[in-house]
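Objective 1b: paired records.
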Amino acid sequence: MTKRKFGANGFIFLLCLLFAIVGFVIYLVNSTTGYLSGTALNYWIIILSVIAIVLGALLLIFRNSMEGYEGLVMIVIGVLLAVSVCLFIDERKTLAADVYFIPVNYPQAEADALYLGIVGVAFYIVSIITLVVSSMIGIEGKEVKKDDIIVVESK
């Protein structure tokens, strides 16, 4: 088995994981502080996000031994992140209704919680977009020998 190099497309996938982590942290901060500090967390968002992030990390760490399963793992990660962002949006729809559709007497903390939630959703969506881009390119570069020099080309 030949070791495959980490190509530029792998860095795009790493960005996907970083965006997912940032979105997840924003969800946790948004749900436990400020206006929403007394509300219950949606554990499905936590479970699905952690599974997606762990699967992505495992795909990066064991990229040589997971050859052939990368596409399936990326599909699973995409579905997990998509369900997480849908649940995140569903949780924040009452805030959006209060701030945008009944803009008479809402506390500023409620608007701040909504805006932070929108930022968290944006990070999840950017994570899904970078996942799609990296899946189109592929995680790995392939090794090609040219005149005894190893060159890394993307798939």
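Objective 1b, second protein:
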Amino acid sequence: MKTAFILLLSLAANLLLAQTTEEEYQYVAYGYKEQLQKGMDDKKGYYWKPIFQYRFTYQEERFVKKITYTGLFDFEGLYLIGETAPRAVVAIFRKEDNMSKKDGVFLCVPHHKSMQGLLTESARYLKEDVKFSENILYHYTIALGSLAMALSEQKQE
């Protein structure tokens, strides 16, 4: 009985370790951009690791003509020191690929096992606050699929 209880607690702890916390979500969605803008160090106990970059072209109408842009999504993982799986991922959208990373739009992609509230907040933020055009949302969807493949390849290494 004791062994079963310890095993259950261990499983619960492992599940909790994989989840994005509210504090991590806030750091990824808002604090990381501020950190880059102010030249500050990473949050204590964490580090960032580039995962994947998705470059694409899209058009937007400006007055009476369409302008073509080369957009970019940079995906970086937030890792706890000593862990091999990201706690969360930031998607940094740059309207043009020569735009500075710190001037981009930062989106938190929480771990899929996170509390439903964080997943809902992430979706709400994308829909109501960011308001990407349909064209950029289309590319974001493709980029997220590519991110999933990149993460699965990292896991196999």
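Residues 134-156 form the longest helix (23 residues). The radius of gyration is 18 Å.
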